[in-house]
Amino acid sequence: MTNRSQQIDILKGFCIIAVVFWHIHFTLGNYPLFPIKTILAGGGWHVSCFFIVAGFFLKEDRLIHPFSFAKQKLRTIYLKTLYFYIPAILLHNTFISIGFYSTSADYSGKKMYLYTIADLWKKIFGAIFFAGREPIVGPLWFAYVLCLALITYSAISFISAKLWPKNYANVRMVACILLACISAILSNKLGLTLNRFSNTLVVVGLLCGGQYLYQVKKIRFNNAFCFAGALLIFWQSAVLNGDIELNNNKYNDLFHLFAGSAAMLYALGFISLKLEGTKIGFLVELAGRKSFEIMALHILSFKLVSLILIKMGYSVELYTNGPDTHNNILIIAAYLLTGVCLPVIATCSFDKLKGTFLNKSNYGKN
Description:
Layout: H1 3-22, E1 30-31, E2 34-35, H2 36-39, H3 46-54, H4 60-63, H5 66-90, H6 92-97, E3 106-107, E4 110-111, H7 117-128, H8 141-163, H9 168-188, H10 198-216, H11 224-241, H12 254-275, H13 279-289, H14 291-311, H15 329-365
Antiparallel strand pairs: 1-2, 3-4
C-alpha cells in the first residue's frame, strides 16, 4: 500500500468512527463553545468529508465516458448496498419479533409494521430503485447518494467536455456549484427536500471540490500552519453553525457545508499523515478500509451491545437505533468500540473464509 492510500484510509477511518460515535446518544460535554457531538462525533463534518474524499482519485478519462463509468459504480457501490439492504428487508419481521424494532416507535418518520409478502416485494423494489429505508441499515443512504452523485458528476463531465472541450473542467465546476446552490436554497429556505435527489445535487459539488483540491491544487495536508488555521475555521463553524445533516440536506448554507467540512478534512489529513506507520494508524486505517461495512452494520452491532446490557440488568431500549447511554462513559465506549470493531472482525473473517473456500475450489478443479 502506498503512503498516499494509507493516509487516506486513516482519514476515512476517522470519518467512519465519527459516524458511529454520532449515532450514540449522550449529552455529556455539550458546551456552547465546544459542542462535543458536533466537533468530535462528526456532526459538523463526518459524512461530508467522506464525499469530498470520494472525489480525490476520480480519473478524467473515465469520467467523460458516463455509461462505462456508471456501469462500474453500479457494479461496486450499488450492488454492495443491495447485499446489505435486501437481507435486512427479508429479516424485517424477525427484527420486530425479537425486539430490534418496535411498532410503536418512530424511526425518522417511519413506523414499523409486519410486512406481508406484497410489502416485502414493494420494499425490495424500493431498495433496487434507490428508495430503501430499512432502519437497521439506514446509514446506507450514504451509499445510494454517493452512487447517484458519481454517475451525475460523470454525466456533467461528459456534457461539458462535448460542448466546451477547452474549458470543460471549469464549466463543470460552475454547473456543480449551480446545482448545489439550487438544492441548498430549495431545502433550507423553501423547505422543499426530496431525499436521495436533493442531497445528490449537493454531493456532486463536494465531489467536484474534492477532485479540485487534491488533483488541481494538490493539497497534501502537510503544513502545520494550515492545520492550525483549519482547526480554527472548523471550530468557529461548529460553534456558530452547528451540525450538518446531509441525510435531510440541512445546513446553514454552502459556506457552512463546504468551508467547515474542508477545514476539518485538512485537520484530519494532517493527523492521518502523522499516524502513518504507527500502530494506532494501522487500526484506524483498517476501519477506513472497512468503512462501508461499518456503515452498514454498526446499528446491528449496537443491538448486540444492548442485549448484553439488558442481560446485565441495565435499563436500555433494544428497539432504538441510536442507543441511549445515560451518559455512562463506559457504556458509550462499549457501543463505540463494538460498532466499529464488530463489523471489521465479521467482514474480515468472512473474507478469509471466502478466500479459503475459493482456494480449495480452485485446487479441486486442478
